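2024-03-11 09:14:02 DEBUG pipeline.ingest accepted 1 chain
2024-03-11 09:14:02 DEBUG pipeline.ingest length=187
2024-03-11 09:14:03 DEBUG pipeline.predict start
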Amino acid sequence: RRAGQVPAILYGGGQEPQPLVLNHLDVLNQLKNEAVYSHILTLHLGDRSESVVLRDLQRHPFKPTILHIDFLRVSADRELRVHVPLHFLNEETARGVKQQGGIVSRALIDLEVVCLPKNLPEFIEVDIAELGIGDALHLSQISLPAGVELATQVEAGSEQDAVVVSIHHAKGGEEEPGADAAATPET
């Protein structure tokens, strides 16, 4: 680490784990790209290449330093279980924001999905244009790309059907009915 290197491990795919050493600056530059976290990556190891996904990343608590990286080998015929980031569309123009003055509240920023490597999306789009104040989108309402499933089966209205995003009133933006009458003295 003092020499500007990051220890890493490559495992899975029915092969022995292989320790790796990566250049810290190269790793930091690659991690600036969101796709690194949910894409099939190619690791060049001497004269061969391995298809992998980033499985775990350990960062220093307050320094911009990567402490350790875990990579999982990928096989084209074996399903992956990975977290894919959510991209929220129409946040500024959503009905509850633009017309009603609400605020978007993101409850989840990624989803754990299961799919074959060829179907792995870089991100999942969530369109909130039609949400009004008090409305929410749940896991069961998210449209997933073909060949991609949620890691946990979710039925609409069930306990596992978590809120993904909602729109609510801004603090102090909504007054109680009759509040004006109580605050204004009669003469």
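2024-03-11 09:14:41 DEBUG pipeline.report The chain has three helices and twelve strands.
2024-03-11 09:14:41 DEBUG pipeline.predict end
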